[in-house]
Design goal:
Layout (H helix, E strand, L loop, with lengths): L4 H15 L19 E2 L15 E5 L7 E5 L14 E6 L1 H4 L13 H13 L2
Antiparallel strand pairs: 1-2, 2-3, 3-4
Length: about 120
């Protein structure tokens, strides 16, 4: 989704990073941001909820702000399978997924038009 092969490779390195401890750390505000932690994508910086992204999380694939690895946690704490930590969907820049730029041809901030494209990518095997 508009990122280089090198950035995609960093996403796989992140997955290896998560395998070592066998768990993920989740944060909700910028103070908790660090490499390897994931943030709920449906919680905006101002605390408001974006229901279109419910269930999706994102992690930075490096110390930089971009790109983001978009994932889903396909379990809850009582049903976590031993061989699966996350479902990895795609690597994308922050502005592209959150509608802060018109990369997909929509007006700035138009999540209602961006979400169907993201949803289609989530549904692909």
């Amino acid at each position: 989704m508009g990122v280089s092969d090198a950035e995609i490779e960093k996403a796989f390195e992140l997955a290896v990073f998560w395998e070592k401890p066998g768990y993920l750390e989740v944060y909700e505000d910028d103070a908790g941001r660090q490499y390897g932690r994931v943030k709920p994508s449906w919680i905006r910086g101002d605390g408001n909820v974006v229901s279109a992204y419910k269930g999706l999380y994102h992690a930075r694939v490096s110390e930089q702000s971009d790109p983001l690895l978009i994932i889903e946690l396909p379990w809850d704490s009582s049903t976590m399978p031993k061989n699966k930590i996350v479902d990895m969907y795609f690597v994308i820049n922050h502005d592209d997924i959150f509608g802060e730029r018109s990369r997909f041809g929509q007006p700035k901030g138009d999540l209602k038009n961006i979400y169907p494209q993201i949803s289609e990518l989530r549904d692909k095997p």
